[in-house]
Design a protein that fits this description.
This protein is 42% helix and 17% strand. The protein is an alpha+beta fold. α5 (86-98) runs parallel beside α7.
């Protein structure tokens, strides 16, 4: 009788194993094929039947996670984690980091490591990446800048920069086709949007190399509207990833851009660097600094533009995770960084910008404030032709040249090209000199000698330009 009961029990167990193994095997195959919606459809009733089944809960939660339904994924993944499913802990770690819950992320990361050790598996490279990201996020949360956001706008991700309303003093954002037509020497598909300062002295943009990695480039704009020698700004600015979306402040030294390199919190982050004149010409760039939260997030954040004339700042982010859309945040920049209290119970919400009203002052009509600060609406970003000034060279024989193509003599054209490059250099030099004078006006007397030296260099540059122009005239008319 006991033997019969044992055989009967074993048969039932075998039948049960076959019944439950089938749906899980199907879910595993469908999940590997990316059929997440089908897996969810099949696993929901399975989890209802066996609510403590680790595999059923895992495939349900993992599929919801893959579909972006993180709220629904958390429950089944938590059950799966409790049943020792290592990958569930990994996903819960990433979800915790995405909502800036560092304590929960650390707890799930420890459980992931424990589950891997129990299964005698080594920790993958992703474990180290998540550990590094967790440490970086913890440090960033200690210095979340308290900013005042005026508005947020959701726009199509394609040509999103056209929604930026910048004053003329802040420069211009140009589309990729403008860059290629100005002579950047690359196809439009390899180029990004570009930035041109108010004085139209230079152009900054990003272009992809043969491996598809984007690097920041720059070139002076000559007076005939074409680009002078094109060169990468500094390949190290990408920090091992892509560098895109440059914006240069009016001081001519502070550069904001985005990269997805090793110091990014996730996706593209916004970085800041400063540049200075290098010995022998050109520019040198300091080590880029991540501008931190709330500007950056585990998602893509880019194109920080600060318009000092209007008193507004702009940046874009896809942290809302709306397909094909980005959110543009408009804020009031501050000359002094003020960080939120690390013990503020709303710190995570302030960093994530889950509710921009948390950044605003009570009783302020931000709609009216924005309307009063916004520059007039223009479509200057597409009107790149107006960014191409012409020079005027009077030959003294009744002829006036306006373009390099007007020259018949190659040596004369080269001399004029040198003059145009010198004039572009003079404009940048004068801008830097004005910066020194502004510091002096504000009481910094230490720059007095630098101003005098700059004025001497200005006089020498003007003399050189006159000589180069005269050489062009002489060669063309001889």
């Amino acid at each position: 009788m006991k033997l019969q009961r044992f055989i009967y029990t074993a048969v039932l167990a075998a039948i049960a194993a076959g019944v439950w193994a089938g749906p899980i095997d199907d879910a595993r195959k469908l999940y590997a094929q990316g059929e997440y919606e089908t897996v969810v459809e099949k696993m929901r009733p399975q989890v209802k039947k066996t609510p403590k089944d680790g595999n059923a809960n895992y495939f349900l939660g993992a599929s919801l996670y893959a579909l972006g339904d993180f709220a629904q994924a958390k429950g089944p993944l938590t059950v799966a984690e409790g049943r020792g499913v290592a990958e569930a802990s990994r996903m819960l770690t990433e979800m915790a980091l995405d909502r800036y819950d560092v304590e929960a992320a650390e707890e799930h990361l420890d459980k992931w490591e424990a589950a891997l050790k129990k299964g005698k598996k080594s920790t993958p490279a992703l474990y180290d990446e998540l550990t590094s990201r967790m440490i970086q996020m913890r440090n960033m949360l200690d210095r979340v800048e308290r900013i005042e956001i005026v508005d947020s706008i959701t726009v199509d991700s394609a040509d999103f920069f056209r929604a930026y309303r910048l004053s003329a003093e802040a420069g211009r954002l140009l589309p990729a086709d403008a860059v290629s037509r100005l002579g950047a020497g690359a196809s439009q598909s390899e180029l990004s949007m570009a930035y041109m300062p108010e004085n139209r002295s230079e152009l900054l943009w990003a272009a992809a190399d043969t491996s598809g990695v984007y690097t920041l480039y720059g070139a002076d704009i000559l007076d005939d509207g074409t680009l002078d020698h094109t060169s990468p700004l500094d390949k190290s600015l990408g920090e091992g990833g892509d560098a895109l979306f440059p914006f240069l402040m009016p001081d001519g030294m502070t550069l904001y851009f985005a990269n997805n390199g090793e110091n990014s919190l996730g996706g593209y982050d916004i970085f800041m660097t400063r540049r200075t004149d290098a010995d022998g010409g050109g520019k040198e760039y300091y080590q880029p600094q991540n501008v931190g939260m709330p500007y950056n997030s585990p998602y893509n954040d880019y194109l920080l533009a600060i318009d000092e004339a209007s008193g507004l700042g702009w940046w874009a982010s896809d942290r809302s995770q709306i397909p094909g859309k980005v959110t543009i945040y408009v804020f009031i920049p501050s000359s002094v960084r003020v960080n939120a209290d690390p013990d503020d119970p709303q710190l995570g919400a302030l960093a994530l910008l889950s509710d921009i009203s948390l950044t605003q002052k009570p009783g302020v009509d931000y709609k009216a404030l924005l309307a009063s600060k916004l520059p007039e609406q223009t479509d200057a970003s597409s009107d790149y032709t107006s960014a191409q000034p012409s020079f005027a060279l009077d030959l003294g024989n009744g002829s006036v040249y306006y373009r390099l193509s007007d020259f018949r003599n190659q040596r004369a054209r080269s001399a004029m090209l040198e003059a145009l490059a010198s004039e572009a250099g003079l404009r940048k030099h004068l801008a830097a000199e004005e910066g020194l004078r502004e510091r002096y006006r504000r009481g910094d007397r230490s720059v007095a000698d630098a101003i005098l030296q700059s004025e001497q260099e200005t006089a020498q540059m003007r003399t050189r330009i006159v000589s180069q122009r005269n050489a062009a005239i002489r060669l063309e008319t001889k």
